[in-house]
Amino acid sequence: MDDLIFLGIESSCDDTAAAVVTGDRRILSSIVSSQTPLHADFGGVVPEIAARAHAERLDLAVEQALAQAGLQLEALSGIAVTAGPGLIGGVMAGVMCAKGIAAGSGLPLVGVNHLAGHALTPRLTNGVEFPYLMLLVSGGHCQFLRVDGPEDFTRLGGTIDDAPGEAFDKIAKLLALPQPGGPHVEAEAAGGDPRRFPLPRPLLDRPGCDLSFSGLKTAVLRQRDALIADRGGLRAADRRDLCAAFQTAVAEVLAEKSRRALAASPVPVLAVAGGVAANRQIRAALEQVAAIAGAQFLAPPLRLCTDNGAMIAWAGIERFRMGHRDDMTLAARPRWPLDNRAAPMLGSGKKGAKA
Ligand code: KG4
Ligand code: ZN
Fold first, then answer.
1. Judgement on whether residues 194 and 295 belong to the same structural domain of the protein
2. Could you tell me if 298 and 331 lie in one domain?
3. 175 and 296: one domain?
4. CA of 105 to the centre of ligand 1 (A)
5. What CATH number corresponds to the domain at position 144?
6. Which domain holds residue 269?
7. What is the pLDDT of residues 148-172, one digit of tens each?
8. What is the 3-state secondary structure (H, E, C) of 179-220?
9. 138 touches ligand 1 (CB under 6 Å)
């Protein structure tokens, strides 16, 4: 089965992506066309603009992915596509594109859960064995998953409101920093004093692994407004200190909840995915928690941590190996929880309702 070659298509948020991946974990190509400039003026992803851009760019992304891999469609074993969760217009554009290719070529079609794509990435990048723990932290996702098989996920906790990347973006906005805010907040925080402003550590007083970030955002807003009322404006040092306090609070909360997740579910590996995993302070905090728990810490390369087609191709290969096949009735799903036993999550992020 290791001679499988899959095309993966991803269009659930603001990246149009296609990639070709083999069953023995080689990424033959990975094209990611970001829509960030299209949404920049709106302070968030506009679903209608995203859907139209996906529809326009998908064909080209697929063509480029095949060309970069040096393969024709006939060389493939199947087509994997994100069938949810995500912004429905974008997911539909991807599913329709994949169905068209599958119908025209006769290749098998496999619908993939976007979150499973993220969650299975450490198997593609590092060949990690089951079980392991995955912390997904991005602009649209925030959850702890115990991964026991390609289709066996247990959610140990997640955010009850904003995703952490969303919180970084909102902090950037209220401090007049550019979007997406994470890297800018991190750069400011590097020169700041994390102890000057006391910020809450949301939900640490409650047992379990659920998280909350919207109160933290409000606390930063209050501090900012108090400084402005007091002095008529923000100084550069104020901004740095606010960013440092915020980032430290997020890092501490993620670390403590990861410690609990590892204690509740002792597994050999703690893996992270999502744009927020790029943050050095957060990464270091998680690394320390893993080391203390005797687990290996694993962060796939950033281009495979953020939305991409390779993770979808890989998740498609894993599902295909389990005997899963879809047909022309494959539906695009705005919501698609990975763990059907877990209670639905509240809140809605950049990608719409959280799965
Ligand atoms: O995974 P991703 O590229 O897209 C999805 O949300 O699906 O994550 C993007 C998010 C943004 O909210 C961005 O601000 C955040 O990841 N991010 C960071 C950093 N780099 C990106 N957050 C904190 N620190 C960073 N260095
Ligand atoms: Zn994602």
1. yes
2. no
3. yes
4. 36
5. 3.30.420.40
6. 130-303
7. 999 999 999 999 999 999 999 999 9
8. CCCHHHHHHHHCCCCCCCCCCCCCCCCCCCCCECCHHHHHHH
9. yes
Which pLDDT value is given to residue 344?
63
pTM over 0.85: yes
For 320-330, the pLDDT digits (tens) are 999 999 999 99
pLDDT per residue as tens digits for the range 4-36: 999 999 999 889 999 999 999 999 999 999 888
Query: Among candidates 266, 261, 285, which has minimal Cα distance to 157?
Result: 261
Instruction: Give the integer Cα–Cα distance in Å for 314 and 211.
Output: 29
| Contact indicator for 227, 238 with CB cutoff of 8 Å | yes
Q: Is the CB of 162 under 6 A from ligand 1?
A: no
Encoding tokens for residue 114? 């976007």
Ligand 1 touching residue 300 (CB < 6 A): no
List C-alpha distances in Å: 227 to 142, 172, 223, 234, 347. 31, 16, 6, 7, 30
Please report, for the chain, how many H helices and E strands are present, in that order.
11, 12
For residue 196, the CA-to-ligand 2 centroid distance in Å is: 34
pLDDT digits (tens, 9 = 90+) for 231-281: 999 999 999 999 999 999 999 999 999 999 999 999 999 999 988 999 999
Q: Which of 23, 247, 25, 294 is nearest to 133 (CA)?
A: 294
Mean pLDDT of 119-126: 97
For the sheet containing 269-273, what is the strand order? 152-158, 142-149, 132-137, 269-273, 296-298
Residue 350 has pLDDT above 80, yes or no: no
Any ligand 1 atom below 6 A from CB of 349: no
Reading the block at residue 282, the tokens are 């957060």
Question: Is residue 58 located within the same domain as residue 187?
Answer: no
Q: Tell me the residue ranges of DSSP E strands in the chain.
A: 5-10, 15-22, 27-34, 78-84, 109-113, 132-137, 142-149, 152-158, 269-273, 296-298, 348-349, 352-353
Residue type, 7: L
